[in-house]
Amino acid sequence: LKLLGMSAKCSTEHLPIGGGDIGVVGEYLERQREQVQELVDEAILAQLVHSYGSAYVDVVEYVRKEPRLGERIAPHLPFILAEVHYAAEHEMARTVADVALRRTDAGNLGDPGGRIGRAVGAELQKVLGLTDEQVEKQLTAYLDQIAVDGLHGPEGLQQQHG
Fold this sequence. Notes:
Radius of gyration: 19 Å
Number of strands: 0
CATH architecture: Orthogonal Bundle
CATH class: Mainly Alpha
Largest sheet: none
Shape: globular
Helix content: 40-55%
Number of helices: 8
Order of helices and strands: HHHHHHHH
Distance between the termini: 62 Å
Number of domains: 1
């Protein structure tokens, strides 16, 4: 446009990124809590809004359709199985490591015994139709990666699976 002697105002200057149209997070959480209190608890809601913004409703919709997807990936963390489905179906995640370490932060918080990796692998198997062998290979790669990252060594899961 500059070469043509024209200028244009930036049309995206004030446009929020996808899911970013929530305003003040605390106020948004208050407004949303009542709508989803039967589906997810406050800690899970806060984590979903933090991760997905207003698009958290797309993740909660999985729970609405299939309540078991509201179960936590690990009991002590606010990440749910619905996030595995969302990651695979909307974000093209295809591996345990991708879901556990990049699409959610579940594996980044440590994974003693590989519990998070196993839960993610089992759910990915259902969503993507992976074979047992494919899941096992992905679990091994995930455990190797978290060992390198210092999040947990692979010995716990290898003893259980290998």
